[in-house]
Every structure is written in structure tokens, then in C-alpha cells.
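Meet the record:
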Amino acid sequence: MGNGKGSSQGVAVVLRAPVAAQTWREFAYLLLGLPLSTLYFSLAVSGVAVGAGLLVTFVGVPVLAGVLAMCRGFGRVERARVRGLLRVPLADPSPVRAGGSGALAVTGALLKNGSAWRHLLYSVVHLPWAVFAFSLALTLWSTGWAMLLYPLWFWVFPAFTDQPGLSVFQNGEYAFYLDSTLSIGATFALGLVLTLATPWVFRALTTVDRVLVRGLLGRSRLDDRVSELESDRGAVVDTAAADLRRIERDLHDGAQARLVALAMDLGLAKEKLAEDPQAAARMVDEAHGEVKIALQELRDLARGIHPAVLTDRGLDAALSSVASRCAVPVRVEVDLPARPAAAIEGIAYFTVSELLQNVSKHARARGARVDVWKSGERLLLQVSDDGRGGASTSGGSGLAGLAERLDAVDGVLVVDSGAGRGTTVTAELPWRAQAGPAGR
């Protein structure tokens, strides 16, 4: 029953295709392609010829830059046409970035811009394809509909000419006309086949145009990479600013406030030293305890910035130290052929630290495991627990922020956390070995 329903839907799609809005939009796109491509080709080739001829003087350089700018304008028209008629969501290429504001800077930026040269290439190579697509589309459309509707208009020939029907073949005294019932029916059938096939030919022709526009007029991989790096740079800057604010807040509310209170207590103890030595001794003893607490807070703060054990002994020892402070038992396995670069090592350490904090606060787990290993040119970290699960990178969670920070260094964060079956978080970072003696 399902196959029968699918077949009937397929037949309905085929029958509706000749009058569907998509078919008429694609037909309009193919018809417009020829005059526009003729204009692009003429202006581009003429401009390049003039610019190349004037290169013996300096005038040819700005002429060529102007041609490239003009071709980028053609690209804007073509992208708008593709979006409007073919419904293709096509992103604009990156703008031309000039090193300065002068005419020479803009000219140099245009001449060095790869996207501008691709636009020029499109303006030249699209014309032959546009001629072929225009001719085929118009021929199929007009022939198909004319043959399909022939039973309705063949009477024009006997009524207004001396022919009984449309002449298909004529050689001297012999002629073959489409005037019999059989020939008219055959013409109608062939017209129906052509009319039903024409929309799919349009799809094929416009698919080639989609490929050309995406490849030559759309964003390149380099453009996407630049945008990604700009976004990642913003994430790194925001993260660094947030870390600085956290350190400032911890210093102000923690060690700094405690040291201020300690200074005041020591001042009072100094005043009481002569008149009440015992009270002064008690105050000094209390101040000594405050000094120990302040030192511990400063050590914790320094560990949060960059732990000494990580620098001295590497990831294995540093992660074991983090695991010992977790609220649940944690097993740590580090299998690395060498120490990664300091920056990657630090990111790996803080990633595992944050994940273990999540285990302590939210997982309600009985135990956890940390695995670190190298695979190819990637460093992989995996933190798993047997808690309640349900963790996600959506909704502005801490995992979402961690994923953004990893993405800023070409890292990846994958979360597998089904409700009631624990959580496994896998992080992947680029591998770069640490240089110098520490890396051996």
C-alpha cells in the first residue's frame, strides 16, 4: 500500500511539473541568462583588452582594477538572480579589504583579490553555456507546448492556407502533413512527453548554473575560514576578558580583603603590645592563621591561572592532582608519546578540570574516568561518569561555553549523555609536540 501511495505521488509530481512555479522560475532564469551573459562577456572582454593594451603605461592597471570591480558588480546581480529565481541561499564573498584608503590601496587590493578574478572568469565562461541552455530550454518549451496543443490549432492551416495541416516533410510533389486523426494524436502524445520532460531538463540546466555560481561567485573556503577565525578570535578575546575579570574579582573579594583585614589586626596588635601583651599575642596568633588562609587562597588562584605541577610534571600528574580534589573517585589514564605544546597542554588541563567540576556538582555519580591519548595529529580527552546523564551543550550551559573555547583552537567537543546512563564527553584538540628538552 505504501509503494502504491508513493507511486501515485510521483506521478502527480510529474504531471504538475510543467505548470509548477519552480519550472517557470527556472525557465525565466534560463531565458534571462543569455542577454545578461552577453552583456557581461562584452564588457569584461572589452575591459580586459583595453586594460592589457594600456599596461605599457600605468593607465592599464587602474583600468583592470575597474574591470574587476565591475565584474564583482555582475556577481551581485547573478547572486540576486539565483536567490530570487532558483531559491538558492547563496552567501556573498568577503568584501575587498584595502590596506589603506587611497586609490592605490584599493587598486592593489582588487588586483590581489581572488574573488574578483573568479568573477571575471565567470563573466567570460558563462556565455557559451548560457547560449546552449537558452537554445535548448526555449526549443524544448516551445516545441513541446506547440505539439501538445496541436489538436486545438491545426484547423488554422485548412482555414487560412491551402495546406490540410502542418507540413512535416516535402519533396517535390510528395508532402506529408499532420492532418489525419492518427498523426494529430501522435503529435499530441509526443508533445505530452516533451512537455513532461522539459521541467527535468530545466532542473539539469539550472543545476550547472548553481555549480558555476557557487564555485565562482560564492564564498570560497578561504572566505569561510577567515570568517571562522574572526569569530574564534572574538571568542578567545571574550574568554580572556572573562578570566581577567574572574581573577580580579577573586583577588579583590578573597586574598586582598583578607590581607587588608590582616594589616588592620596587626596594627591593633602593635598598639596593644605595650599595655596588654597577652591580647597582642592572641591577635598575632589569629593573624598568623589568616596569613595561612590567604596563602592558600593565592595558591588556589595561581593554580587556576596555570598550575605549577602542569609546568613541572605534565598532564599526567596535573590531572591526577585535579582528580584527587573531585567529589567522586576518578581514575586517570594518560597515554602520550610526548608532552604536547604548552598552550595545548594548558587547554587540555582546564578542559578536564571543568568537566570534573561538572561531575562533582551535577552528575550525582559514584565514579568517573579520565582518558587522554594521541590519535594521528589530534589529542583526545575523554571524561566519563556513571551519573544521572542529561548533559547538553545547548541552552547556554557551561558545556556550550567550553565547546566555543575549544572551537577557537580548532578543537571539537562531543557530548553523549542519555538520561540515567551517565555522561561521556570527548574533546579533540590539534596535536603539537612541545619543543625543547621537555618534549623529548
Notes: The chain is about 65% helix and 10% strand. Residues 13-217 form one domain. The longest helix spans residues 221-272. The CA atoms of residues 99 and 386 lie 55 Å apart.
